[in-house]
Backbone:
C-alpha cells in the first residue's frame, strides 16, 4: 500500500534560478531533511548521488539511504535502504516566477494498522513538504542569512 | 466612524500600572500547571531576546480564547521573572472591556490596543506583545491553521522602526486546533457592519464547546491541543532597511521569516490536536 502527499508553492524568482536551486540535491536535501538528519554519502559517475536522509518525527526517525537523480527542472529520488519511499520535485513556469511541486510517496506494510499509519504518514509528509517548500521560497526570495532561517551546510 | 462604547465596569487601570506582579506571582504556578497538563505546552527560544525593550510579534490563534497568548504571557513571566522587564500585551477592546476577564487580563499586563499605547509602554521600558493579524488571524479557517495571516497590516513595522526597538517574532502551532473554524468570515463582518461598529473584522462559522455551531467567536473551552511556541531571533528594521524602509518589502520579509518558522514548527506535529 502506498500513499502520496503533494504540495506546491510559488516562488517569485525567475524560473531558471528557482530550477537550479530546487533541483540541486546539495541545497534541497538539507532543506527537506532539515527537520531531521541528513548526510551525503557518495556521487556516482552518471551524476546520481546517494544520501542518508531521515525525518525526525517525535521519537521515530523515518527515512534511510536514498538514490538521487537530478535532471533539471526535475529531481527525484527513491529509497534503497530504510523506509520505502520516493520523492519527486518539479519546477514549472508561473506568471509570478516559478512553481515548485514536491510529491512524496510512502509505502508501508500491514493491513488495518498499515492503512492507519499511511493516513498519519500522508499528513506528516505533507507538513514536512510545506516546511521544505517554505524554506526554499524564503531562501530564494530573501537569501536566508541573518534571520535564523538560513540554509544548513550542504556538503 | 461611529463606535459602540461599552460601559466601563473594570476596576484595574488600563496601562502598565494595572499590571499586578504579586497577582501574577500567585497565579503563575496553578496556571502553568494547567497549561502544561492540558496543552502539553512547549516554549523555546527566549534566549534570543535581547536585554532591551522589544516588540514581540506573534501569530494569533484559537478564536476568542487565544490560549497561546496566555501561554506566552506565562512563559515570559517565568523566564524573565515577574520582577524582570514587564510584558505588556496589546489586546482587542472586546477583551479588555469585558467584565471580570478584562480585569484579569489587565492584571496580567494586557492593555487596550493602540499605537500610542504601544509607544508609551516601550518608552516605559516594557516588552510589548502585538498580534498584527488580530481577530482576522485568530478566526482564520482551520485549514489555514499553519499560515501567517496579517491581512496586510504594517503598523507594527512602523511602530518598531519609529521607536527604534527590535522585532522579536513568535510563532505558535496548536492554538488554532482548539476550535474548528469553517470559513473566512471577513465578508460576513463587512455585510453585518461589525467591522465598522465593533471593530470585529471576521465573523466565521465556528464549532466550539459549549457553544456548538456559532457565527463568530465567543470565549470557549478550548480543545486540549498540544501547543508549541518558538521565539525567533530579533529583526532590527533600522539596521536592515535604514531610515526610509520600503514597508512592503519589510512586511514581506517579516511575514516570510515567520512563515518559514511556523511551517517548520508545524512539521513537528504527528497528529493535529494530539501533537
Residues:
Amino acid at each position: 500500500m502506498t500513499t502520496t502527499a503533494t504540495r506546491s508553492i510559488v516562488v517569485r524568482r525567475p524560473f531558471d534560478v528557482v530550477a537550479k536551486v530546487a533541483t540541486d540535491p546539495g541545497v534541497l536535501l538539507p532543506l527537506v531533511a532539515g527537520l531531521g538528519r541528513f548526510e551525503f554519502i557518495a556521487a556516482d559517475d552518471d551524476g546520481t548521488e546517494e544520501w542518508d536522509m531521515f525525518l525526525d518525527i517525535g521519537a521515530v526517525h523515518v527515512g534511510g539511504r536514498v538514490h538521487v537523480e537530478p535532471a533539471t527542472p526535475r529531481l527525484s529520488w527513491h529509497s534503497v535502504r530504510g523506509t520505502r519511499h520516493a520523492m519527486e520535485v518539479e519546477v514549472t513556469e508561473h506568471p509570478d516566477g516559478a512553481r515548485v511541486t514536491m510529491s512524496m510517496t510512502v509505502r508501508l506494510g500491514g493491513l488495518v494498522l498499515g492503512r492507519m499509519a499511511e493516513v498519519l504518514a500522508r499528513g506528516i509528509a505533507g507538513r514536512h513538504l510545506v516546511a521544505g517548500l517554505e524554506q526554499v521560497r524564503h531562501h530564494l526570495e530573501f537569501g536566508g542569512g541573518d534571520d535564523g532561517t538560513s540554509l544548513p551546510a550542504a556538503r | 466612524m461611529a463606535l459602540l462604547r461599552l460601559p466601563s465596569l473594570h476596576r484595574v487601570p488600563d496601562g502598565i500600572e494595572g499590571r499586578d506582579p504579586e497577582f501574577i506571582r500567585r497565579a503563575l504556578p496553578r496556571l502553568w500547571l494547567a497549561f502544561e497538563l492540558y496543552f502539553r505546552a512547549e516554549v523555546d527560544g527566549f534566549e534570543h531576546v535581547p536585554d532591551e525593550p522589544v516588540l514581540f510579534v506573534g501569530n494569533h490563534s484559537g478564536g476568542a480564547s487565544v490560549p497561546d497568548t496566555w501561554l506566552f504571557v506565562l512563559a515570559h513571566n517565568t523566564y524573565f521573572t515577574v520582577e524582570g522587564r514587564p510584558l505588556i500585551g496589546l489586546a482587542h477592546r472586546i477583551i479588555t472591556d469585558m467584565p471580570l476577564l478584562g480585569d484579569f487580563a489587565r492584571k496580567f499586563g494586557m492593555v487596550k490596543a493602540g499605537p500610542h499605547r504601544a509607544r508609551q509602554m516601550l518608552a516605559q521600558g516594557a516588552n510589548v506583545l502585538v498580534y498584527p493579524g488580530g481577530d482576522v488571524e485568530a478566526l482564520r479557517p482551520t485549514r489555514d491553521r499553519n499560515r501567517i495571516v496579517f491581512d496586510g497590516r504594517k503598523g507594527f513595522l512602523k511602530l518598531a522602526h519609529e521607536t527604534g526597538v527590535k522585532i522579536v517574532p513568535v510563532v505558535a502551532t496548536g492554538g488554532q486546533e482548539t476550535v474548528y473554524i469553517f470559513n473566512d468570515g471577513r465578508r460576513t463582518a463587512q455585510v453585518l457592519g461589525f467591522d465598522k461598529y465593533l471593530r470585529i473584522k471576521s465573523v466565521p462559522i465556528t464549532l466550539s464547546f459549549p457553544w456548538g455551531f456559532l457565527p463568530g467567536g465567543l470565549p470557549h473551552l478550548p480543545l486540549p491541543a498540544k501547543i508549541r511556541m518558538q521565539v525567533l531571533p530579533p529583526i532590527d528594521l533600522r539596521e536592515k532597511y535604514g531610515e526610509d524602509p520600503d514597508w512592503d518589502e519589510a512586511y514581506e520579509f517579516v511575514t516570510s521569516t515567520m512563515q518559514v518558522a511556523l511551517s517548520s514548527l508545524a512539521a513537528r506535529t504527528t497528529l493535529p490536536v494530539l501533537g
Remarks:
- Chain A touches chain B at residues 34-35, 56-58, 120, 123-124, 127-128, 130-131, 133-135, 137-138, 141-142, 147-149 (CB under 8 Å).
- Residues 145-155 of chain A have pLDDT under 50 and may be disordered.
- Strands of chain A lie at 2-11, 37-43, 49-57, 60-71, 74-79, 85-94, 97-107.
- Chain A has three helices and seven strands.
